[in-house]
Each structure stands twice: as C-alpha cells, then as structure tokens.
Amino acid sequence: MKGKRKIIVPVLLLALLAAGGLYYRKVTGERQPSGRLQLFGNVDIRQVELAFYDSGRIEKITVHEGDRVKTGQLVAELDPVRYQAELKRLQAELLHQQQVVAKLEHGTRPQEIKAARDKVKALEARVEDARVTYERLRRMLAKKSIARQEVDDARAMYLALQNELQAAREALDLAVQGPRVEDIAAAKAELEARKAAVALARRKLKDTKLVAPADGVIQDRIKEPGDMTFPNAPVLTLARTNPVWVRAYVPEPYLGKIWQGMKADISTDSFPGKRYRGWVGYISPTAEFTPKNVESPELRSRLVYQVRVYACDSQGELRLGMPATVSFDLHQSRKDAGSMQDVCGE
What we know:
By secondary structure, this protein is an alpha+beta fold. The protein contains six helices and 13 strands.
C-alpha cells in the first residue's frame, strides 16, 4: 500500500507541474510586452491589370517580369496604322465642314448677286418680247391671217418665260438676304460633331500606347507581340510599390488601444534588425474570425478586426505575402497621428 502511494504522489506532482507549465505558456504567450502592442500579419500591395482600350494586334512590349517602371512609362503598343488612317479621314471631313460654315457665314458674294440681277434683267427683256409677239399674233389671228397653232405656241412661250423670271427674282432675293440662320446653326452643329469625332480618333490613336499608371514592378507578362488583344483583356500585371502595408488582425480586447494614424514599427524575418516606420491607415468596422494562416488552432475561433499598417519602404524591400511583425508604442498621443508625409517624409 505504501509502495503505491510512493508512485502516485510523484505522478500527481508531475501532472500538476505539466498543467502549470501549459497554463503559464498560454498566459505568457498571449501577454504583450509592457507598454507595447504587437500584431502579426503579411505584407500586402495593390495589383493593376494593364489592358488596352481598343482591340488590335500588339506591335511591341517593352518590359519583362521583374522590371521596375515609373508612372507614364511606355510598356506596350498596338499597331497604329488603322487608327492613323481613321484620324486622317476624319480630319479631312472636318476641314470640309469648316469651309461649309465659312461659306455660309460670309454670305453671298457680290459677284453672285450681280449675276443674279443680270439674269433677272435679261429674262425681263425676253418676257416683254414674248408678250409683244403674243399680242401681235392674237391680232393677226383675229383677221384670220395666221394659224391658231402659232398663237398657242407664242402664248406658251410667254407663260414659260414669266415663270422663269419669277424663279430668277426669288433667287436674287435669297442671294441678297444670304443664308438662313437655321442653316448656319445646323452647319455649325455638324462642325462640332466633326471636331468631337477627330478628338476621339486622336484619343484612340494615343491609346494604342499602353503606359504604366503608377510606379511598380511588372509581375506578369500575359501577352506577347503579335497577339491580338481586346478591351479589358490584361496584357501585363503591375504590382504597385506604393503604397505598401501590412495586413494584420487585432483581437477585440486590444481594439481600443489603436487608432487611425497611430505610428508603428514594422519588422520582418527577411531583414533582421531592420525596422520600417509605419502608421495605421485603416481599421475594419466589422469583426471577422481570425484567418487560419495568422493564429494557432486554439485562437482561430476568436473575433478580430483587420488593420492596415502602411509602411515606409523606399528601397522596395517589402514583398507581397512577406510575414511581418507590427509593434505599437501604447504611450503615444493622438496628437502625433501620422501620415505618409510626416512619417516617411514624402
């Protein structure tokens, strides 16, 4: 009996020590350094899929995977021949319409008005001559000295010349008055439409050149020269180098300890001993379960809030997905809230 007690007591002591050790590890593992808060997460960046506005055959691509590019740098170009021809055609139509508007605005030339007046005078003389001839033949018909057909022909000629004279007089009035206001307005509207078409054609020609919208690194070269491309079909993928942030998750008990603009230090295993300055740029308004790749299985069921801590990384050392540790000094004042300008000096 005494032998059994000697065995049970040490076993119980070992079990108590093991339980105490596990409890101590759990408590100390979750405990934060005094006056500081540490969060763990991964580096995140924005990615841009570069595509052309219009369809066409890719003529050249000037970059490769891993190349660093600057804002506005040419990265790819479509064959511009079709767009150049379309622009020339629309420019010719615009020039024609400009001349039409100029002609209407200047009105009828003096030479044209003079020619219209001379035509009226000539027709007036012919009408008077036809009238005299018709009257003379009527009198002769009364005496039965000519045939009825000659009188009818003279009358038809007289009436035809009268109609022609009336048309000439109306044409003279229009020449003197000039173009109608409505005609000028319609021509000007057509001119504006032509200008818009030329502007759009110029823009389409410009869009045959694909440029980088921001500084970054070419991540993927999806298409090659000679490939056909279409609107919204990515040609290249650009990983932006600015801004760079650490996506971390803060447990609900610590949520009140951080705030927008709070400054932080960021460190990674890739560059031991080096710290990057940063600041809190975003705190999620909604809770979520801890991501499985962030915490241990025992803590996955806890609710956390996503936090973005933007980093100063002028050397481009922080890469997408890189594990990082974010450390906050809990004694800092809200008056010291940071931004890119005052934290990074940019």
